[in-house]
Design brief:
The chain is α+β, with helices and mostly antiparallel strands. It contains 25 helices and 21 strands. Strands 2-3-1-9-8-12 form a six-stranded antiparallel beta sheet. It has a six-stranded antiparallel beta sheet with strand order 4-5-6-7-13-14, covered by helices on one side. Strands 18-16-15-19-20 form a five-stranded parallel beta sheet, with helices on both faces. 45% of the residues are buried.
Length: 639
């Protein structure tokens, strides 16, 4: 794992040493195992390395292969090492001495720019191909690692962080109004639909699933298709599907826990993190290493207000998993002194841009800190599980059967659901028809529009959202088919790489998600829908595949779902006056006057003077208010 940086002068002008030092100085706040700089007249590569995997220890980056005239700097962990080694016909005895970055270079030497079709993992890298005078880079399919760049007047600059690029004297620090407009107008959790834009005008990002080629022909970005949605995996029996899934899932997790230090995992009371923990803990047992788990729980004194079917404190389910699986050192973390408001400044400093996921921010960063104290260098999570391993909502599937006139199959499923869940057949049919014939919405639960109409008109942001089929009110409820398609085929939904990368560098801790492994994604997308919903059981594949691995209290839990972050308002009670003070400062400040419709925001804020209702944390108006406050604090701090 590394923070990387580079400068390339296409006009052949030498690069001042001061410029490379300025870029690398921005990484000084991160821990490092080695720092290397490479200068070749009009080319500079730098690497602020953190050694995570056994093969990375002692690695020299940037690395040059002078025979092939290739140089690489990389922020990468490659998971399918053996597969690539086999294709390259590299002997087993030599494999442990080859780092992931050198493996990428060997693969590039054989396949050229099609190297991205051969490697699986989390990566961002650049290769200087001296023979062809090409600077070639790539970012993995999900964008788990960041790669920013600036290009102007024959100067091309790249870096893992924005702050590194801003150190350079020829890079202007200007706010990107289009980015701000989209941030304010989009109700969903992603920031923008503009794939290359950042909050800084003139600084772009390489989007997920993209390569970049810099040469005398200019800067060319190309999307690569990592996922073939047309391929189908067909077996004869459920048992064959389960065995194929378990084998691949186990392989993926085993490859992702390759580290010289301790392995940790987020653990909730659900199926995704629970399934990962069960596989990882069993594997680590063979290495005489425990698995460290970290679970957020509500603050002391919190009364669970969440509706029936939701639960804020998941400890009964978490402990059930811990006791069943074994070989786990579990941590239950309250973070009593933290809340969504108190961590804003720290988050802005860390991730370098405004953010939307404030509800869980305080415990997310807190878990990184706790994991770091336990000398954890790999932290597993299952954040994409709802779209892959545990995908499958019963009524969405039944609506598809209804539309396709699969009456016999639908009847059998309704009967099974009725017997298994106890819901009346008439009610089940009503819900199926409702799903099938109309798109649900809740206008009373929509996001208020707080964007300044003048800014909206100048940036044409509402037209941009309409072109991308984004409901700017946030009232439409997509089904699980739409949500999964958005996740893997609309790249702007893959927008959390900057959070993962910056926190991982800060704590020398790489976040890995086996449910988002490219091979797992491909496999799950290739399966028949009936593998995910069958016999009245939703999320069927993961429930069947974890029999014996997870306790039935978790594996077959249909009654309760976690409500993480539900205590956010309760946590803010001690700082509510400070929160209101900052809100009033925001609406009176000229900093946001050109971006926000102040009358609307004033009306929204007026509700919070004496209102500390705990359910506010999930209220759309409160969410929009917090986003505006976060944006205000960012602009005040950075501009």
């Amino acid at each position: 794992m590394s923070a990387i940086a580079g400068i390339y002068h296409l006009n052949m002008e030498p690069i001042p040493i001061e410029h490379s030092k300025l870029m690398m100085s921005a990484f000084a706040k991160f821990p490092s195992d080695n720092i290397e700089l490479l200068h070749q007249d009009n080319l500079f590569f730098g690497c602020h390395a953190q050694w995570i995997t056994p093969e990375s220890v002692g690695e020299k980056l940037p690395y040059s292969d002078y025979n092939c005239q290739l140089t690489i700097t990389a922020d990468a962990i490659i998971d399918n090492r053996n597969e690539v080694f086999n294709k390259l016909q590299i002997e087993n005895k030599d494999r442990s001495t080859i780092s992931d970055s050198r493996l990428i270079l060997l693969a590039y030497q054989k396949w050229g720019e099609k190297v991205i079709n051969q490697i699986v993992g989390d990566y961002a890298f650049f290769i200087w191909d001296a023979k062809n005078q090409i600077l070639f880079g790539a970012r993995d399919f999900s964008g788990s690692r960041t790669l920013y760049f600036h290009e102007k007047h024959q100067k091309f600059v790249f870096s893992t962080t924005i702050s590194s690029i801003l150190q350079l004297p020829f890079v202007d620090k200007k706010l990107n109004e289009q980015w701000v407009a989209e941030f304010l107008a989009i109700p969903d959790m992603f920031n923008t639909v503009s794939l290359t834009s950042t909050v800084y005008k003139g600084i772009q990002q390489l989007p997920p699933s993209h390569t970049i080629r810099v040469s005398s022909d200019g800067v060319i970005l190309s999307r690569f298709n990592a996922i073939d949605a047309k391929s189908q995996t067909i077996y004869k029996t459920n048992e064959e599907y389960e065995e194929a899934f378990k084998e691949l899932y186990n392989q993926t997790i085993n490859e992702q826990i390759r580290t010289i230090s301790n392995v940790g995992a987020h653990l909730s009371g659900g199926l995704d993190s629970g399934s990962i923990v069960s596989y990882a803990a069993n594997r680590l047992k063979t290495e005489n290493k425990p698995l460290y788990t970290f679970s957020y729980i509500p603050a002391d004194g919190f009364n669970d207000w969440t509706p029936r079917g939701r639960v804020a404190d998941e400890r009964p389910y978490i402990k059930s998993t811990v006791e069943h699986v074994g070989n786990i050192r579990d941590h239950y973390l309250k973070f009593n002194d933290r809340n969504p408001f108190s961590v804003i400044d720290d988050w802005l400093e860390t991730i370098e841009m405004p953010y939307k996921f404030f509800e869980n921010s305080y415990w997310m960063s807190g878990i990184y800190e706790e994991a770091n104290r336990s000398k954890v260098s790999l932290l597993l999570n299952g954040s994409k599980g709802n779209y892959t391993v545990s995908w499958g909502a019963a009524f969405d599937y039944y609506a598809v059967l209804f539309k396709k006139l699969k009456w016999v199959h639908l009847y059998n499923e309704i009967q099974s659901y009725h017997l298994f869940r106890g819901l009346g057949r008439k009610r089940i049919i009503e819900k199926v028809i409702n799903k099938a014939v109309r798109k649900s919405s809740n206008i009373n639960n929509s996001f208020p529009s707080v964007i300044n109409p003048t800014l909206a008109k100048q940036t044409k942001v509402l037209e941009v959202l309409e072109q991308n089929n984004i409901d700017f009110t946030g009232s439409s409820i997509s089904n699980t088919y739409e949500a999964r398609n958005n996740q893997f085929h609309k790249l702007y939904h893959r927008g959390n790489g900057h959070t993962l990368t910056n926190f991982s560098l800060r704590y020398k801790l790489w976040n890995r998600d086996p449910t988002n492994d490219l091979r797992i994604v491909r496999f799950c997308l290739s399966l028949p829908d009936s593998q995910f919903v069958q016999n009245g059981i939703d999320r069927s594949l993961i429930r069947r595949s974890t029999k014996g691995l997870l306790p039935d209290k978790v594996r077959m839990n249909y009654q309760h779902r976690g409500a993480q972050g539900a205590d956010g308002i309760y946590r803010m009670s001690n700082v509510w006056d400070s929160f209101l003070t900052d809100l009033h400062e925001m609406i009176e400040s000229p900093l946001l006057a050109e971006f926000l419709h102040i009358p609307t925001l004033k009306k929204v804020i007026s509700k919070y003077k004496e209102n500390e209702e705990p359910a506010l944390i999930f209220d759309p108006s409160f969410k929009m208010t917090m986003r505006c406050l976060i944006l205000y604090k960012f602009i005040k701090k950075k501009f």
